[in-house]
Amino acid sequence: MMKRRYTLILIICLFLIAIGLIIKFKNSNVIEEKDNITFFFELMEEGTGIDFSSISDSQMEWRVIDENNDVAIVKKLSKEALVQGISESDSQKIDDFFEDNGFELDVYNIADSPEGGLRGYRKNRMYCIVKDGYKISADDEAINVDVKIDCAL
């Protein structure tokens, strides 16, 4: 009778250890994906010469077409980088970086206005949204640009 109890206790302990290892493994994959996005921002910094050091966790909204041909919003955990007060030519370097590295513009994630714009880029499993906000002078010329880049896997 005691042997059965010890065996049962041993099986329960092994089961709990297995569950703990599975949870730990799943969490390590999430951390790895977020680190991949940080690494991507570092590559973008090297390619553009723009400082992307202010990176924070975020949640992005990516527009897709559902089975009824309606636009639906998918929310994804992401990381965002905010760059303030850059020139229009530096802002263009960001778009050039995406295009030069095989990203495609997604037509359902594009918007434009006099005060700024939004462009969604995707490549394989990576999705990025670039939002521009223009600071305009009294004579309607862009003085500088604030750019927020939000990327998810």
* Number of E-type strands: 6
Radius of gyration: 22 Å
Query: Which term fits the overall shape?
Result: elongated
- Unreliable runs, pLDDT <50, ≥5 residues? 28-34
Order of strands side by side in the largest beta sheet? 1-2-6-5-4-3
> Roughly what percent helix?
25-40%
The helix/strand class is alpha+beta
Gist?
With 153 residues, this protein is α+β, with helices and mostly antiparallel strands. The protein has helices spanning 2-48, 88-100, and strands at residues 55-65, 71-86, 104-113, 116-123, 126-136, 142-152. The longest helix is centred in the N-terminal third of the chain and has 47 residues, at 2-48.
Describe this structure in words.
The chain is α+β, with helices and mostly antiparallel strands. Helices cover 39% and strands 44% of the residues. It has a six-stranded antiparallel beta sheet, with helices on one face. The radius of gyration is 22 Å and the shape is elongated. The chain starts with a helix and ends with a strand.
